[in-house]
Amino acid sequence: MRGALLGAAALGVLGVAAAWFISAPARIDADDLPAQAGDPERGAALFAVGGCVSCHALEGAKGADRLVLAGGRAFRTDFGTFRAPNISPDPEAGIGRWEAVDFVNAMKFGTAPDGSHFYPAFPYTSYARMRDEDLLDLWAYLRILPASGRANEPHEIGFPFSVRRAVGFWKLLYLDSGPVIPVDAELERGRYLVEGPGHCGECHTPRTAIGGPDLARWLGGGPNPDGEGTIPNLTPAGKTISSWSEADIAEYLKSGFTPDFDTAGGSMADVVTNTALLSDADRLAIARYIKALPPVGPAE
Description:
12 helices; mainly alpha; two-stranded antiparallel ribbon
């Protein structure tokens, strides 16, 4: 009997150790990064694609104040309320003490400099598809933006979601740097922008019961994560833009006007403010990728 109990205890210890090991945050070292300095000018374009302002600027910020990434915006979800952090260059309140490798680890692996998991309200499942060279450019641009001393606010999350280590298991299911759908070479640029820095799937793809993106219904629309209503289905099966041409989509991303002269509303209006800063070529690349999506059943 005593031997059986000791055996069970040993198995339990091994199980806990294995769980701790496989849920560990992933990270790379600075030596693993490309040996190049980031280019802030190229980083500015990626900043626009990523819409960093939409989450990290203070709500209601206008003009130059939109570049003060002081954080604080609340994201209410079924798992709790998450607060966007201060990612300005302030050394105390922001990320001014980070190194480039810290930024890459955060964006690609959802790993904080202290080795803990970031919650997936931070859309690293999309940013994981970004190239390291682009992340270094984006980092270079963030470094020249204004600093803010605004202190971060804590997330409001109850047990068991407050156990950050458990995010490691979630990542095993949903953190993948590979492309979502296969495309021809001429659509590669659009796929990169949409699936990676543009992180369109974070809102336009429905979620599983544990909050992961349901890639089988990629960009098929779903409940609005910010509240009431639904996010449109972008695939050919959707009602909203299935009849739009590539030029119509590109124009919408530039001006916010639909083919019937309606305008972008809700959170999409903020997205258009960012996509309006892209080149015509990149907006058209996004449009071509969207028109090539496989159809997903209506969710509008």
